[in-house]
Amino acid sequence: MKVLRFLYTSYGVLVFFLLFLIFFFLLLIPIFFSSTYKLTGIFNRWWARLLFFFIALPYKVVYESKLDGKKQYIFCPNHFSYIDIPSMGLNHHNTIFVGKSEINKVPVFGYMYSKLHITVDRTKLKSRYTTLVKTKEALDEGKSLVVFPEGGIVTEKEPVMGKFKDGPFRVSIEKQIPIVPVTIPYNWIILPPNEFLLNWKPMKVIFHRPIDPSKYTLDTIDEYKEYVRSVLQEELTRHLNK
């Protein structure tokens, strides 16, 4: 069984990087021409769809309500697996990511990621502050964001989420941009965080209703975090018990 999973994973990694080589040249357009930033989301969506097609991994994207294509959102998914990032590429909304700076160290891919997305070194106060500033600037430019509120894969017991960071909730309140909780219930089974071996299982991505930030202030940010967390955890638990 592990041999088959190893072969499947090796094939998946090969497909991922072959597609990356193709899309890298396309992504040079928004890298060098910042006004075309919306192409980042479009190309990410093509990349994700082709990736899951070629590795024969079926997926279902569910929207609890129709999102306004002209509005900005901050998408906050749970994060248990490395495959969560391409999963969020299936989003119909064009977005950029806020992610860990470790990705910058990956040859070529790290260059592309650092130029198109926002990275943060959470061990350094200055980096966290700079990321907060860049995040606000991105919102001022009209961009929508994907931010993993746990700050990375930090859980010790999937599918129970780790503690949420303040960042996405703070900018949501300050900029009055709605947060959309996103539940990805099965990725921790498809690609477990403690073993980089793929399992075949249909994927599901659930975009919940946007949350109005006007109901919260910086003094009630913990209530905001807890509400988003409860939406995600309830959905995770529901799928676990199916």
Automatic annotation (TrEMBL):
The keyword Hydrolase does not apply. The chain crosses the membrane at residues 12-34, 46-63. Keywords: Acyltransferase, Membrane, Transferase, Transmembrane, Transmembrane helix. This is 1-acyl-sn-glycerol-3-phosphate acyltransferase. One of its GO terms (molecular function) is acyltransferase activity. Residues 73-187 form the Phospholipid/glycerol acyltransferase domain. The keyword Transmembrane applies. Pathway: Lipid metabolism. It holds the Pfam family Acyltransferase. The lineage of its organism: Bacteria, Pseudomonadati, Bacteroidota, Cytophagia, Cytophagales. InterPro entries: Plipid/glycerol_acylTrfase.
